[in-house]
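Final report, results section. Input specification for complex C-07:
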Amino acid sequence: MTTPIKPKLKVATTSLAGCFGCHMSFLDIDERLLELLKLVEFDRSPLTDIKHCGPCDIGIIEGGLCNAENVHVLREFRANCKILIALGACAINGGLPAQRNHLSLPLILEEVYHAQHGLVDGFIPNDPELPLPLDKVHPIHEVVKVDYFIPGCPPSGDAIWKVLTDLLAGKEPELGHGLIHYD
Amino acid sequence: MSPDNKSTFTLDGKTVSYTEGQTIIQAAMAAGEYIPHLCFNPEFKPHGSCKLCTVKANGRQTASCTQQPQPGMVVESDTKELNDERRALLQMLFVEGNHFCPSCEKSGNCQLQATAYQLNMMSPHFDQFFPDRPVDASHSEYLLDFNRCILCSLCVRASRDVDGKNVFALSGRGIKSHLIVNAKSGNLADTDFTGEDKAAHVCPVGVILKKRVGFVIPIGKRTFDEHPIGATPHPTVKGA
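Structure output:
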């Protein structure tokens, strides 16, 4: 009799208004990735290039919400993932992109694409394929329910590993001193 | 009342002795016990505003920085209920201001951040206010970044009670409360504030910053990177 093979957990990841630094930090778990791959398989992720998220056990979101597409992707993840994790400062509190929040959006677009010195005939891009920017950048928990948060800019590979292994072991994830960082 | 419990109370089951006039947090600190706090600094008269040091004294919630103990008083501090409430207070402080730790020179030496680590604050929970608070870089030696102010009033107390200068004040009420600089222009450069002032060295967060020394101690090697804030009753911050 053969022992039944334990199905692998499905994990999806994405970067919204982030810099991919959190994904780079995720890769910093180094050879532990091989250990992880024995337990999980990746669905939508920059690592697989799958474009849409199917039903998953864990969804990991880097970055906050700065445009309409970010909101659509986030909702797709929430609808498909049993557990949703906010990874890093931008997903948790808006982070660097949210530093634009005290400026008005028209002023920023005008400054960046039109008024700045050296922009000859500059114009604000309006291709219908471009997602519309939001008035303010928001952390993801302001739009969907988020189950777990891994703070840091970026969180260390060790912090990401700790949360994932705690979850895979069926435990409440806990980051102690040294792993919990906001910087 | 038995004579045995005169001048002692219990803090989370441990017996703590106190002297006349001491508050609960002062007696706890003298006994080497940490109670989370932000607006309290043992060098200054208590302000009782941040409420982070709230304990249960004989079953009633009270700020331990202003409440004096009674003989035999039963004080609870490190309980799930109180720590949950403290975390909620911290989350409100975080969303009311702009606490963007990755760009803050005080990161790692910040009592607000370290207390949030200590109390396992994993997210701000509430919606961000993203207030608009311009910085004051007018002074040649010091920068004021109001985005991080938690209204603890330590700079107000230091400038008034120690420096005798009244450089800072809290203005407005309720959610409109904010820190102001006592000059006609509102700029720090137009006051007699100097780096020798006590007020230059008491900010528990990253509002009052000496210019050009921000990263002398690199991130990762700072006070609370090495030890959690609860390791000592009151932190001594590196470079302060």
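The first strand of chain A starts at residue 9 and ends at 15. Chain A is about 30% helix and 20% strand. This concludes the modelling results for the funded period.
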